[in-house]
User: Fold this.
Amino acid sequence: MFTSDELRELYQEVILDHNKDPRNFGVLDPCTHHAEGFNPLCGDHLTITMNMEGEVIRDVRFHGDGCAISKATASLLTGEIKGKTQEEAERIIDAAQEAVTSSGTSDLSPLLGKLSVIAGVREFPARVKCATLSMHTVKNALHGEHAASTE
Assistant:
């Protein structure tokens, strides 16, 4: 078990790593699903593109400009949902949203995998919208809605 200081350090390391070297960064062209997301609070703007075969997310990418938390969350999220069904991806997103907005009483790490580290953002309430932007945008892409906002 980690101490709160160790968790905070791990959170910061992962954010910095995924901001500097984001995974799944780019645009899929052509793609079967896409959506754009915008966070007017800090100016984050990203586009999610994905290719689905039936209910399975075969590939997913994100592109855009944003703060370190926004970019790192998109990097981690796209890594966790690739190869999952739409239903599995939505469960992961719901759990991730709970992780960043709750008091942290439930253990969501088995469902979230590496994305569980993003729960550390709940210590910075002003940054929750940065973390959830990619989550809203992926959900919109999955449902054929092409725009998302954290307003």
